[in-house]
């Protein structure tokens, strides 16, 4: 990755985070914490990794992305909007009556959304099914799925992992956003999922742990996912919940709460300052 590519990704990630704040503030509801922790991942996917075409959202040979932790839709929408799937201004309609940008992704309404999700654990199962279908059809497309670390407390997730290994789904890349917090508190206190990497490997999944805010590490992990053959690949991202907004970082209360007017101003001021700093580099 060149310095210029990294700079462009960092700038776009900042714009994605701003979109999260804009949308949740306008909606007076939503899930900013986990959207912000995954903002760098969303950015890398839609601006470097995924083979997609905003002008042809239903292109049959596109790569697929399933947001298994569907409540972080504000982050996905911000990435899709900035990639050109729909106007950035529409982020302000998040959760509004009649809007195609609802609290959880709807594949029937939102351009660029490949799977309707929200019930935790089900998205990864759908992604595994997509990957198997692609294999049967001889398609070269890849399937990516993002899960939360609280989500992997669901038994269905591990059934999907067993399925993916059994069918040798090397076209499936599972990403786990390990920010350490879920709606009820620290994931280790609610239902300890650790050691995540060891458990994935025990299920026959090739696994790599990275800093989910480091674009070079994200790039290296996706490269390994593409070259790994005969088994699925998983990326466990260590992240900070609420990343990029000082008062939201590592605060469980921001799992599912929108910023008020004062908090909105602080967040946008911080993100705007960071964007200007990156632009000046």
Automatic annotation (TrEMBL):
This is Transketolase. The keyword Flavoprotein does not apply. It comes from Flintibacter hominis. Keywords: Thiamine pyrophosphate. Its cofactor is thiamine diphosphate. The keyword Endoplasmic reticulum does not apply. SUPFAM superfamilies: Thiamin diphosphate-binding fold (THDP-binding). Residues 13-267 form the Transketolase N-terminal domain. InterPro entries: THDP-binding, Transketolase_N. Belongs to the transketolase family. Pfam families: Transketolase_N. PANTHER family: TRANSKETOLASE N-TERMINAL SECTION-RELATED (PTHR47514).
